[in-house]
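Ticket #4471: structure output looks truncated?

Reporter: J.K.
Steps to reproduce: submitted the chain below (380 residues) through the standard prediction queue, then opened the result file.
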Amino acid sequence: MLALLLSPPAGRAQNPYPQNTYPSQFRQPIRSYGPAQSGLQSRSNRITIGPSIPIALQSADDLIIGEPDSARRRQYVQQRVRSVVKVRLDGRGQVQDTLEYQAFNEQGRATEAGTSPGRIRRQWSYNAQGHCTALVVLPATSQPYTFITSYHPGLRRGQQEVLQPNGTRTVVGERQLYQHADTLLTEAVGHNLLVGNHQYLDYYQRSLRLQPHPDTVLCLTGFYDQNKQLTGSRVDYLLYQAGQLTESGRLDLGQAAKAQPEAGGAAGTVVPLLSSHQALLALRRGSGRLEVRRSHYDARRRLIKQENLPQAGTSREVLNTYNSLDQLIGQQLVTSGISSPTRSAFTVYSYSPTGLLLGETTNARSSKPVFYRYLYQYYR
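Returned output as attached by the reporter:
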């Protein structure tokens, strides 16, 4: 069945967002549809929550991220770190308040996170194989309800639920993942629910994440109406060099389609459609290529510069400095905008003899330096 997804185009562009390659696993009816939206948007103090684009998923088991990066996780396992607390220090070096708290299991995977041990905001659960199966986000001022994301690795199926203070539990999102080699198809359904000022949307989308070349990842997403007819599409991409991510962004489908006369649209619509082959060709030619982030590395494969390209007139650049042990010891953040002056902020890091992050000094949030300390507890 994956062959149907990956077959090359013949003549007019084939629909790369097929409805029938896999039968839908969802049976709950979808009540209504609005325009395809992604991420969070605020309208009249209402936060609208729509579908996300799963290009970051490396495999079906990455649906919930519940652990630090691999290097830090290995370090925590080796040194048997149980928890980390980040505290702010006053001018005399005394603890002023607690800002962050994280707890880890003996495999180095996060189990709890919050502002302090008594104020937990997130909790993760794992199965016997170490796969993350649930993430619970507890209520806060900005979100006055519990949000539960669960995932069954065996079925490759997940869902998102809202648990309100009155005990009502409602499914607001479902995902079914299908994987073959490095190709991942994600089917997502959303269900309408208004909780306070959070509006969850009805939606249906399918995203095909594939790797047509060792240095390229494409994610082709289709948005559908209540009859599962294509109403919108989107192509996101990741570019790598020697296994390191160097660029991410998306394609302007209108511009990319104009550069390829053979590209078409869904029957009876004006939705631009590109096959994976045409999307790759447009990416290589630079047709409609909208870069979002660029990353640069040195000869030792260390990230030395990351550029977040202008979004809404604002750009962001991060410059990293390392010591001979490859530890990050300095970071400069440069932000600039059309209507605001360029601003630079600096952060300096220090480490314990065992290599754990120990201190942080920064002026990122104020004109005067602020001092932080990291405190650790260990498994015996």
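Triage note (M.O.): checked the attachment and the full token line is present. Confidence is low (pLDDT under 50) at residues 1-16, 18-22, 27-42, 265-270.
Status: closed, working as intended.
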